[in-house]
Structures are given as C-alpha cells and as structure tokens.
Amino acid sequence: MVSARSSGRNHQVTLPVLNRRAEAILKARPAYREMVDFYLTVFRCQIEWRAKLAVHPEEVETTQARECWRRGTPLVERYDPGLDAESLLHLWLEMKGVFGRGNEVLQQAVEKIEGAEAAGTFTPAAWLLEQRPGRSELITGAAGEIEVDETILATLARAVTFPHWEAVADYWLALTDLADWKGSHCPVCGSPPGLSETRGERATSAEIKPATKRFLHCPFCGTQWPFPPLECPACGSTKPGDAKYLFTREEPELRVDFCRHCCRYLKAVDGDKIPGTIHVGLELLTTAHLDALAQDKQLSPLEF
Ligand SMILES: [Zn+2]
Ligand SMILES: [Zn+2]
C-alpha cells in the first residue's frame, strides 16, 4: 500500500501559501468568494484524509516507462493504478458531507444522490473506480439517472478521485523522470492539460534574454510536465505568430494562451507571480471570466 505520506508534496506547508493566493484572487475578483471558500474546504478535507487514503499502483519499471513515453503512451495505459474501492468510498462519504453542508443547490444535489444510493440505482464505489479522463459519459449518464446537475456531480467525483490519482502519480513519478515525454497530454493519466504555467529562468551572463519554461498541469491527477513555450498543445503548430495570448490589466498573473491556426485556447498562469505550488483546481474554479474572454473571440477550449 502506498500512503500519501510517502509523496513528495507537503500539503501542510502549502496551506498558508494557498491562503495567500486565495486572498489575492478575492482582492481582484470578490465575486469568486463562494468558489474560493468551497475549494479551501474541499482541500482541507483532502489533506486530513491523506493519511487514510490507500492506492496500490503497479510497480513501474524505469526502462519500460521510458519506452512507453517515447511512444507517447501515458502510464495508465500500460500499468494498473491500483485504485482502492474502499478508500474511494470513504472519501466519497466525507466529501458528500462537505457538499451537504454547502449552499442549498449542493444540499439538494446530495439529497438526490443519497436517494439514488438508498434505492440501489447508483453505486458510487464502482462508479468512482471507473472514472478516467475522456470518460465523461460516466458523469453524464449518472447525472441524467439521478437527475442532478452534471457539473456538481463531476466536482464531487473529482474531489474524491483527485487525491487518489495524485498519490498514484506521485508514486510512479518518483520511480522515473519525465525526460522522454514530449506529449501535450498527461504522461500519467492521459488527460488534456487544464492549465499552462510559465516560469522565467535566471539569466546567465552569456544570454541576452532569460529563457522561459512552460509546464502543463493535469486537472485529473495533478501531474505537471514541461512543454515547449511556443508550441500549440492542440494542433502542434510551432509557426511564428500562431502563439498568441489575451490578458486583463487587473490580473497580470493570468493569461489565455491561444493558437491562431486552430483557434483553441488554454488558460495560463505566470508561475513567477504566484507563490508556491499552483493549485490547478483553484485556478480553474476562479477563472471563468477568462473563458468568457476567450469565447468572445470565438476561441474553443483545448480538448483532444
Ligand atoms: Zn494526469
Ligand atoms: Zn493550434
């Protein structure tokens, strides 16, 4: 069994930094208060749960993992993530409690879900075990059957699956490195990236301009991986002038990166302006105005 204690991430230390980021978001956009409070509540619950969380990922052999990545295959297609139904179910019950103490809309959704569970028409453990990037039909189907809002059900599912998949990713990535991965989808679970991050490198005396590094972040398992700064993650264009971006003056740390060739966009953060770890969930929940900005320009979100 792999406990999340063995992971390289220290979530207790990140909490004060996360709170500072939450305050900065609210200062710029007070309308996101409910979203920010919700994310912080879910995140604290996930931290408390970490010591009890169980996953049993299959051992990854370094040479074979590299071979997988050279062929562009995410590890989940080759190795068993070893998800634990009981662990998923326990966190589901915990998260359902968190949602049930939320606003009226969340409470009503939880009541409907509980009704379906009691009637035996919905089995969360089996359903959670099957969750994968690209299997949105699992969410859509269950939401239709239970008659509950799809976004709420998806958020509840992700709150439960994310820490489990994050522990799988931590375990697998501790055994190998990402040098052979060139894809724009997640090297662990195969999800399209949810967010892009740029970070400036310290300039050396030999360079006129310091280089910029770019990392893509997975919304499903929390993995981040390097990707060329000017390549389009959707169509692969590297043509000069295709990589463009939109931004607002009030939030210089946020951008919408888009491609003039395929008209796809990906929200982006400036890692040098945001302290500590980037919380992809928090950034995605509080940047709906960037989606509106992009969609006003007839751009579509990145998907594969
Ligand atoms: Zn992933
Ligand atoms: Zn493109």
Describe this protein's structure:
This protein is α/β, with parallel strands linked by helices. It folds into two domains: 4-175, no CATH class; 195-301, FdhE-like fold. Helix content is 44%, strand content 11%. The protein is built from ten helices and seven strands. The protein has helices at residues 11-28, 33-49, 62-70, 85-100, 104-118, 124-130, 136-146, 150-175, 280-285, 288-296, and strands at 195-200, 212-217, 224-226, 243-246, 254-259, 264-270, 300-301. Strands 1, 2, 3, 4, 5, 6 and 7 form a seven-stranded mixed β-sheet that branches. Helix 4 (85-100) packs across helix 5. It is globular. The chain starts with 10 loop residues before the first helix and ends with a strand. The relative contact order is 0.13. Residues 1-8 have low confidence and may be disordered. The structure holds zinc ion (ZN) (2 copies). Residues 232, 234-235, 237, 259, 261-262, 264 line the site of one zinc ion (ZN).
Number of distinct helices: 10
Helicity level, as a percent range?
A: 40-55%
Sketch the topology as an H/E string, one letter per element.
HHHHHHHHEEEEEEHHE
Distance between the amino and carboxyl termini: 33 Å
The biggest sheet amounts to: 7 strands, mixed
Strand-residue fraction?
A: 5-15%
Q: Quickly give the structural class.
A: alpha/beta
Roughly what is the average pLDDT, rounded to an integer? 91
Write out the distinct hetero groups bound to the structure.
zinc ion
